[in-house]
Amino acid sequence: MNVFILNAGSSSLKYQLMNPVTKNVLAVGICERIGIDGVLKHEFGDGQELKIDVSMPTHKEAIELVLRTLTDGEGKVIDSIDDIEAIGHRAVHGGEEFASSVMVTEKVIETMKKLIPLAPLHNPANIMGMEICQELMPGKPNVAVFDTAFHQTMPDYAYMYALPYDQYTKHGIRKYGFHGTSHFFVSNEARGMLDKKHNTRIIVCHLGNGSSVSAVLNGKCIDTSMGLTPVQGLMMGTRAGDVGAGAISFMMSQEGMTINETLDLMNKKSGILGISGKSSDLREVLDGMQEGDDRCRLAVDMVAYNIKKYVGSYVAALDGVDALCFTGGIGENSALIREIVCAGLDGMGLNIDPTKNNKRSNKARDIATNSSAARIFVIPTNEEYVIASDTYKIVSGLEK
Length: 400
Ligand code: ADP
Fold this sequence. Notes:
This protein is α/β, with parallel strands linked by helices and 400 residues long. The protein has 15 helices and 14 strands. Strand 4 (39-44) and strand 5 (49-53) form a beta hairpin. Helix 10 (282-290) packs across helix 11 (294-318). Homodimer. Pathway: Metabolic intermediate biosynthesis; acetyl-CoA biosynthesis; acetyl-CoA from acetate: step 1/2.
C-alpha cells in the first residue's frame, strides 16, 4: 500500500509517497511559492533530485502537478493514481476534539473549521489540502493526523493557564502543544531502546526552526512547552518563546505597536534571529560565534539555557528521567547544543559522553556514558512515517 502524505501550508506544500508497511519512500517533494511563481522540488527515494519551475497559481494546481509528476515523465514513481491507496494529511490544530488521528469526513472538516481561530494560518491550508485531494482523487480515504493530538493526555493542572476559568470554558484558552507527531515518534522509539518497559520517564527535545520539549510518562504526554499557539516555550529560530506579559505590554506602549504587529515581531523577528541580529539559522549563528560575534554567542547560550531549564522542570514533573532525547535539525546535528544542555546535569543522572556525542551519524543512538544513570538519545524524527502508519491503520480497520 502506498500512502500519499500531504503537509499543506499557506504558500507551500510538502509531500511524500511512502509504503508504511515496508517504510519504503518512493518520492519526497515540496511545492514552494504557490500563488507567486512556483517551484517544485521532487526527490526520489534514493535522494536523486528533480527541480521543475512551473506556475502554480493555486494549491489545486500545485497538487495536480505533484500527482502528474508522480505518475508521468521524469519524476514518475508509480503508474497511475490508482497506485495510491490513501492520503494522510498533517493537520495542525485538533483542539480538544481530536486526541488521535481520524478518517476525514464532512464532520471532521466542520470541526476543523470551528478550530480556525486557534490556528488561523494553518488549519485553513490543511482543510484546503483535504478538500482538493477529495476532489482530485474521489473515493480514496483521507486521514487527518493532528500536531496537537499526542498532547491531549496532559493533566488539567499542566494545560490550564491561571487566567479566569471562563476564558477556558468560553474560548478554549489553554495549552495545546504542537509537534505532537514528532514527540510521539521519538518517545516511542526511545521506549523501545530502553531496557525497562514500565514507568518509562522520557523527555523529548524537538529542536528545529520551531522547537518544543515534552515530558512523556509511560508513553503518554504529561507536559509540553508550547501553548495555545506555537509562540510559547523555548526560544526558536524566529519565535520569542516565553516572555512576560508585562514586557509585551510595555514594549507595545513604548513602540506604539498594535497587537498584530507585536505578534508578528514575536513570531517572525525574535528568537535566534532577534538576539543574534544575523540569522534564524543556528548554523550561521554558530559560525558567527566562532568568529567572535558576541550576540551570536549570547543567542547560542540562551538557546541551550532555555532547553536546560525545561529539561530540569520535566525531570521534576516526571519524578526522575530514564531518557533525554534530542531530535530535529538542531537536536540531531548540533553536538555543541547537546553538550551545553547536558553540562551540569550529572546530578539528575544525565551524563553525556563527549566522544559519542561528537560522532556523526544519521541513526538513532545513545550518547550517554556507560555509567550514566539515565540514557541520552539522539533520534532522527520521522513525522511522515507516523502519518503514513496512522493512515494505514485507520484505512485498513486496524484502528478506529
Ligand atoms: P524545521 O523545524 O523547519 O523542520 P529543521 O528541523 O530542519 O527545521 O531544523 C532547522 C535548524 O537546524 C536550523 O536552525 C539549522 O541551522 C539547524 N541545523 C541543521 N544542521 C545543523 C548542524 N549541523 N549544526 C547546527 N545546527 C544545524
